[in-house]
Amino acid sequence: MRTSPPILPQTSTKRYTFVVLTSAASILLQARLRAGLTQAQLGASAGVTQSVISAYEAGKREPALSTLQRLVAASGFQLDLALTSHTMASPHQQLLASHRDELVGRLEELGANNVRVFGSVARGEDTSDSDIDLLVDLRTDVGLFGLAQLHAESERILGVPVDIVPADSLKPRIAQKVLTEARPL
Fold first, then answer.
1. All domains of the chain, ordered by start, with CATH?
2. Cβ-based neighbours of 183, under 8 Å, separated by 6 or more
3. I need a surface site. Which of 50, 103, 134, 148 has the fewest CB within 10 A?
4. What is the pLDDT of residues 96-121, one digit of tens each?
5. 85: pLDDT confidence band, cut at 50, 70 and 90?
6. Average pLDDT, the chain
């Protein structure tokens, strides 16, 4: 999340990147010391008293995020915050997420439940050429024709190649790997 800097008169803005998560007290203290300001000078620049700056830096009070950004800006720095996922969903993962309800509902109508994704999509290693591997539990009355219907409907809904694998058909040598990486939809 990037927020607009506070509106304060400044002649220059210094940028300092905090690489680790740290406390508001530590951020404020580092910004003030790097700027070469006393608590009183920072307080005057930001429109708060020296005692408030002291309480923030000692961790006795916790400033609101907007207040912390204003105080850091008054010391000549800009506080940027960003929270990003270490993994971005692949196009196939996004496709599954956006069609999840329709896909799971239709597969249940056709006799499959406990729908899980496994393989390259589950591991986040899929490419545009990858298919989507779905592991399912089948009702006992679902035969080869029913399995073909599940396959066709999955591909119709998702618009990409899909493999449907009944969980009870897994060979023992690969079952543990597949079951370990399988993720429920």
1. 14-78 (1.10.260.40), 91-184 (3.30.460.10)
2. 116, 117, 118, 122
3. 148
4. 999 999 999 999 999 999 999 999 99
5. low
6. 86
